[in-house]
Design brief:
Structural class: mainly beta
Low-confidence stretches: 216-225
């Protein structure tokens, strides 16, 4: 590197330097708040300012991080590459462009980074869910998702807000044609407001929260069982035939329904309760009108209670319960 110093004008001191294959772990340890990142760093930078007041320095930089491993839980995605360019002044860096690439994940970002945390840091993430989801113990997920948003707050407790879109995406053998999720994330709590999903001709909206434990499980560190969720669901357009794969033959039919309810629990143990209404349905060539029902379901079975309807014009009341394997009973 090079340094130019004017003894009678120290604020005009200029330095240019190049780092090659520097240890990110070593540099991270010198920071006021180490992040825990790993890898090697190539840096080309120019700095101007009074060396007696390093916090007031200004300049520009361009860096490349190789074999770059993100801190904390994000280290599960493995090593990748990161490039960034920008300027800095008064201990605040302004990213004009940054791009990272890991297996199944690409990131682009721009905004302000201070010693305390990000401010107005806009980002875009493109991810292959089939590659990334299993790293957190979530199996049977496939598809491509894009997330855009903004980060603010402290490095130790940042707050993210934005939206995620995926079309199509498959989870547990179910393919959603559209998925749009506005979100806010802080700490270990994710808040979703007015998310929208489409399955076949059916459409649903969802608002809720998802939380998870920060502690690792020594027996199964990648397990998803620490995740808990609660959501309110409104489905103004549901086609009965879109759900045939989960219903026993006796409960299959055609027509439009309106659903509303709440689901809560964990991925292994959950429960949903709600109501169903339909003006006109058909099952096994039998017309069904004016349907009103309450229902409950969990990972093992589905129950229908308080059913009121008209079959071929005849008023009917009924109830029933079925296991997901197809066995069950009903009364009317």
């Amino acid at each position: 590197g090079s340094v130019r110093i004017e003894p009678d004008r120290l604020q005009g001191t200029r330095a240019a330097f190049v780092l090659q294959r520097a240890s990110i772990a070593l540099l991270d340890g010198l920071a006021p708040t180490p992040l825990g990142a790993r890898g090697t760093l190539d840096l080309d930078a120019e700095v101007e300012g009074d060396p007696r007041q390093p916090e007031s320095a200004r300049g520009r930089f361009h860096l490349t991080a190789n074999q770059f491993t993100l801190p904390g839980e994000l280290s599960r995605i493995g090593a990748g590459t990161l490039t960034a360019a920008g300027t800095f002044q008064d201990a605040i860096a302004v990213l004009t462009e940054a791009a990272g690439r890991w297996a199944g994940l690409q990131v682009r970002a721009s905004g302000r980074l201070g010693a305390g945390g990000p401010t107005g840091l806009r980002f875009t993430l493109d991810t292959d869910l089939g590659t990334v989801a299993p790293l957190w113990g979530v199996q049977g997920v496939a598809g491509h998702a894009t997330m855009t948003g903004e980060a603010n707050g402290r490095w130790a407790d940042p707050e993210l807000s934005g939206e995620a879109r995926a079309a199509p995406v498959t989870a547990a053998g179910v393919t959603l044609d559209t998925l749009h999720v506005p979100f806010r994330l802080r700490g270990t709590t994710l808040v979703v407001e007015s998310a929208a999903a489409g399955l076949g001709q059916s459409r649903a909206n969802l608002s809720g929260t998802l939380t998870w434990s920060e502690s690792a499980d020594a027996v199964a560190p990648k397990t998803a069982r620490r995740v808990r969720f609660r959501a309110d669901v409104v489905a103004p357009t549901v086609r009965w035939e879109d759900f045939h794969r989960w219903l026993p033959p006796a409960a299959q039919g055609t027509g439009r329904l309106v659903l509303a309810g709440r689901v809560e629990g964990t991925l292994d143990a959950w429960r949903a309760d709600g109501t169903l209404e339909a003006p006109a349905l058909s099952a096994h060539d039998v017309p069904i009108q004016d349907v009103q029902a309450t229902f409950a379901l969990n990972q093992n079975r589905v129950e229908v209670s308080g059913l009121r309807t008209r079959l071929r014009g005849i008023p009917v009341r009924g109830s029933g319960a079925w296991s997901w394997n197809g066995s069950g009973q009903a009364t009317a």
